[in-house]
Amino acid sequence: MQLLRFAKPIMVSALASLALTACAKVEIAAPHMAPLPKDARMLLGRKHMTEKSPIFLRIFKAESELEVWKQRPDGHFYHFKTYPICNWSGGLGPKLRQGDKQSPEGFYKVNRHQMNPNSKFHLSFDLGFPNAYDRAHGRTGNFLMVHGKCRSAGCYAMTDGLIEEIYALAREAFSGGQKAFQVHAFPFRLTQENLARYQGDRNTHFWRSLKAGYDHFEVTRQVPNVEICNRRYHVNVEWNGRRKLNPRGQCPRFRSGPIVPFVAQPGTANERIKASGPAASPNWSPAPQPAATRSQQASVGQTRYYSGNRRMSLTPPRPRPASIADLLQK
Prior knowledge:
Helices cover about 25% and strands about 20% of the residues. The protein is α+β, with helices and mostly antiparallel strands and about 325 residues long. It has a single domain (about 30-330), classed as L,D-transpeptidase catalytic domain-like (Beta Barrel), CATH 2.40.440.
């Protein structure tokens, strides 16, 4: 009996220790520290990418898609995965003012401090709206995010599971040394055919300015530098002096940067993977557009760069290398 009296507390203590050990084994990381899912890690390996390599994001409203691209050792970006956007608000076109519940369009940059692990929408990162271009045009608003919870009042909303994966990719890229990643938010894929469909829309001029960045990445698989002056976006430009530009002021004399077309090699790195999940149905109804004339069709999508008020074609005098507009025709 005396032996049993001493054995009971020992057994209770042992059971308590086992319970604590079991709890420790099922401890779940906070959402912002959750590791990449196993299938995402396997996909990285299959595409010869690393978790810590730089990322680049593209958003397409009409298609309700967010693309993540990863840089490989050759310096080019390769498609990692396309994620369905669960919800976005407003219609096609840029955000103009606070309270219009419009999701932004343009070229944005996300720094580490814009990541929010304590978001009431599960996880989020701030797009940085308004950027210098938006401010130069008097656009107002703030806290425009990519976040979870599948609810939107001007943001791009994902499911919680998908924002965790995107957040983890960004977190690891920052950990690997990337200072900031770019997010290019487009109304739709800016092909000549799609722009022709919206010929006459009040946003067409703005969309054509975005097309310069869209085309550059499509052709080179390099994220272009984007500068802002004279209240315009200027893509892939260089100038002497590298003085800081005034978004509302006159531009210096620009010259186009080099264009080296990307040649895809056969292999899984070029495989396009789409994540499963709910995607927003377009809540916009485009007005019927008159058929474009032949001359209008020829002009749609011709990428131009600007120097002050002077338009400069990408096409240099002959003999010349192929321009982005030429390459897109192939």
